[in-house]
Amino acid sequence: MRLFNFKKKKVLWGLVISIIVALAIDMLYVYGTFDALELMTFDMRSKAVREDMLPHPDVEIIMIDDDSIQWMDSQVGRWPWPRDLWGDLIDYLSMGGARAVIFDVTFGQHEIDDPEIEGLGESDQILVQSTHDAGIVYHAANIFTDLEDESNKDELNKPLPEDFVNKFSVKNIKKGDFLTVPGNNYELPIGELYKVSKNVGVVSFKSDEDGVYRRTPLFSHYADHSFPVLSMAYILDALAPINITKKEDSIFLDNLAVPIREDETYLINMYKNFKPFSIGGVFNSILQLQDGEIENLKVSPEEFKNKIVLIGASAIGVEDLKHTSIGTDVPGVMLHASLISNVLQKDFLRVIPKTWKRIIIYGLCILCGFLIIILASIYLQLLFPIVMGVAYAFAAYTLFERNIVIDLVPPFLSIFAVWLTSFVYLYFTEGRARKKVRTMLGQYVSPAVLTELVGSSGDYLKAEVGLTEKLTILFSDIRGFTSISEKMEAKDVVELLNKYLSSMVDVIFHNQGTLDKFIGDAIMAFWGAPIRVSDHGKMAVKAALEMTKALEQLNADFVAQGHPPFKTGIGLHTGEVILGNIGSEKKLDYTIIGDNVNLTSRLEGLTKEYGVSLLISEETYKELDGEFICRIADHVKVKGKNEAIRIYSVIGMAGESTEESELNRKICRYSEAAFNKYLNRQFEEAMEMNIKLKKFIKDDCISEIFIKRCREYIQTPPPEEWDGIFTMKTK
User: Fold this and answer.
1) Secondary structure class of 241 (helix, strand, coil)
2) How far apart are CA 674 and CA 696, in angstroms?
3) What is the pLDDT of residues 645-694, one digit of tens each?
4) Vertex 602: Cα angle to 612 and 606 (nearest 5)
5) Please, which residues bridge with residue 653 across strands?
6) Cβ-based burial of 182 (10 A; exposed 0-12, middle 13-18, buried ≥19)
7) Three-state DSSP class for residue 335
8) Is the pLDDT of residue 31 over 60?
9) Per residue in 99-131, pLDDT tens?
10) For helices 409-428 and 378-401, angle between their N-to-C axes, nearest 10 degrees
11) Are 66 and 314 within 8 A, CB to CB?
C-alpha cells in the first residue's frame, strides 16, 4: 500500500508540475514572447517546403531589373522613365491579349510639376490614354498611418476624393466585421489616371517586427471605406463576389474562404519559382515593332496572351526589395503575384486557431510530465522527450506540406521545460529513494549492478515489504577452517580469510551476483535479484566454477607463503524464496529466507560427502540448457526435507572442445548409465561400471559410494518399495 501511495503521489505531482509549466508557457505565449523565434521557424519551413512549388501558370511578372535600368539609361535616360514608355508597355501587352496589367509602380504625381502648364503633360496623357484604351490596367495607391507633426497635421485624415471612393471602395463588405485601425493618410494615382483605371489597389505592405514581409491585410481602411490591396483588386474583379464577409478565421468571397490570422492579415504562401521577363527585353521588342520589325522579337506579345501581368522592380535603385519567408532581397511584386496565385490555386496557408495552440501546449506538457514521472528507466526518461520533440517537429513539417501551420517554439519549450522541472522534482524525491537503494544494496552488489539499479525504477524498494522470487542460491564454505585457524596467528587468519573472501566476492560481483552475507568463513549469495534475469542459474554455475579456479590461484600464493591451502565446497539450488529487507528498525539486511535457502546449505554440506567442490540441485540443472557438463551424483533426501532431489556435480563448460572436456562428457554419460543400472536394481553391473569410472577419475568418491552401496545391496537386497533414494542422516 505504501508503494502504491508513493506512485500515486508521484503521478499527482507530475500532473501539478505539468500544469504549472503549461500555465507559464501559455502566459509567455499570450504576451508574444516566442513570436520572433516562431517566425524564424516559419521561414525555415517555407524555404524547405516551398522550394519546388510553382505559381499559377497565368501569372507573369515583368521585372524592372538592374540590367534594364542600365540599358535604358542609354536609351531614354535615368530612372524614373518617361510616362509615355509605360503607355507603350500597356499598348504592347493589350495587343498581346493580356487579361490584366497590374502596376506595382506608383504614379502619384504629374511627371512635370510646373504650375505654368495647364492639365496633363504629353507623357502623362499617353499613359492615361493607354490605360483607358486597354481597360485592363490596375494602378497602385498607398493608404498608411503617419505620426502627426507640425509639417503634416493639416494633411492627416483629409477626405478622399468622392469619385475615387465611389469607384474603388468595396461596397459589398460589412465594415463592422473588421477591427483593423483605419489609415490617416494616402497617396493616390494622379486623378486623370485613376479615373480610367480598371481598378486601384493598395500596395502599402507592413513587415513583421523582424523586418520580414510575410502577411498583408486583404483590405485597407480609410475613414468609413474599405479598399482592396493591389492583388485583391484583381481578384475581386475576376471573381465578382456578391457578398464579402468575415467569419471566424476566414474572409468569404461568396463561398470561397480565404483564411486570415487573428490580426485579420493574410499569411502569404510565397512562391520562389517565378520566371520574370526583363522589362529591358520587352522595351527592346516594342522598339523593334515601332521600327516595323516583326521578326525575331526578344519577347513576343503572344507570351502574355490571357495572362495576368504584374510590373514590379528588382533593381536596387528602385528600392522595392524585401525580406520574405523564402529569402532576402525579394522583389515586392512577388508578394502580390504570390497572393493572386494562392487564390487562383486555392493554395492557402491555414494557421490553427489560438485555442488549439493552447490545447497542444497543455496536452504536450501533461503527456510529457506524466510519462517522465512513471517511466522506470532513466534512459527512457531522457529519450522520451527527444522522441516526442522529433515526432512533433515531423508532424509540424508534414502539416506544413499540407498548408497547415502549427507553432513549433512554444510546444518545444513546453517539452523542454516539463522535462527539466520533472527531473528537478525527481532529483529531490527519487534521488532520496535512489540514495536509499545505494545505501541498502551497495554492500551486496557490484558497482556496475548498483549503477543500473540506481538508474532504474524505485520498484526494487519493494524489498521493504517483501517479495517472493525464484532465485538461484549459493552457499560456499571452507572445509576444516576451524582446525586451520587454530594452527595460525590471529592476524594471519584474518589476512588469509580477507584475501579469500575478497577474491570470491569479486567473482560473484563480476557475474552479477548479490552477496547476501558472510557466515564466518562461509559465503551466501544469490542470483536473480535485485536485477531480474532469466538465466540466473547459468550465471550462478559460471560464478561457482570461476570461484573454484580463483581458489587454485589463491592456494598457490598461500602455499608459497608457507600457509596451508583452502578446500571449499559450493552448493547451488534454484527455487522460490522470500526476498526483503529483514531485521530491526536499527539494522536491516537485504536477504532471503525460506526452505530453499536451507536446502542449498545442505547441498554445500554434501560436497564433503561426495568428495567434490561443487554440487547443484536438479532444479538448477534444469536451468542450464546443456551449457555445462554435469555428472549425476545421487538421488538424496537431505536431513530436514521430506522430498528427495537429484544432485549433480559440475565438472566443466559444455562449449569447450579439449581432450579433457571430451573425457568429461564420456564420464557423465557413463555415470548416467551406471546410475540407471543402480536404480533398476542391476547392482552387479552398476558396481562394475563404477569400478571402471574410478580408473578415469582420481580419488572419485562418487564411484566409491556407489561401489560400496552395490556390494551391500548384492549381499542384502533392498525391500520391494525401494526407490533408489538415499536419506542423509546428518547435515
Assistant:
1) coil
2) 14
3) 999 999 888 877 778 888 888 999 999 999 999 999 999 999 999 999 88
4) 25
5) 628
6) middle
7) helix
8) yes
9) 999 999 999 888 776 555 666 888 999 999 999
10) 170
11) yes
Does 176 score more than 80 pLDDT?
no
Which of 71, 334, 396 is closest to 203 using CA atoms?
A: 334
State the Rg of the chain over Cα. 47
User: Mean pLDDT score of the chain, rounded to an integer?
Assistant: 86
Give pLDDT, residue 463.
45
Angle, nearest 10°, between helix axes 409-428 and 354-374?
A: 30
Of 475, 463, 466, 548, nearest to 517 (Cα)?
A: 475
Residue 691: which H helix or E strand, with range?
A: helix 683-696
Residue 247's H or E segment, with its range, is strand 244-247
- The per-residue pLDDT for range 691-727, each reduced to its tens digit, is 998 888 888 999 999 999 999 999 999 998 898 888 8
Instruction: State the helix-helix crossing angle for 354-374 and 2-30, rounded to 10 degrees.
Output: 150
> CA 243, CA 252: separation in Å to the nearest integer?
8
Q: Is the Cα dihedral 692, 695, 697, 701 positive or negative?
A: positive
User: Is the pTM of the predicted complex or chain greater than 0.70?
Assistant: no
- Residue 507 reports pLDDT greater than 90: yes
Indicate the SS3 state at residue 249.
coil
> What distance in Å separates the CA atoms of residue 352 and residue 631, rounded to the nearest whole number?
74
Residue located via cell numbers 529466507: 593
pLDDT at 376: 63
Residue with cell 568429461: 664
- Going by C-alpha positions, the residue among 53, 46, 50 that lies closest to residue 325 is 46
If we measure between CA atoms, which residue out of 524, 643, 639 comes closest to residue 589? 524
pLDDT value for 114: 55
- In terms of Cβ atoms closer than 10 Å to its own Cβ (0-12, 13-18, 19+), residue 443 is exposed
Q: Is the pLDDT of residue 314 over 70?
A: yes
347's CB contacts (< 8 A; 6+ apart) are 53, 269, 341, 403
Given a contact cutoff of 8 angstroms between Cβ atoms, the answer to whether 104 and 322 are in contact is no
Give the residue with greater pLDDT, 41 vs 150: 41
* Single-letter amino acid code for the residue at 406: I
CA angle 136, 141, 146 (to 5 degrees): 170
Alpha carbons 625 and 355: distance in angstroms, whole number: 61
C-alpha span between 601 and 575 (Å, rounded): 13
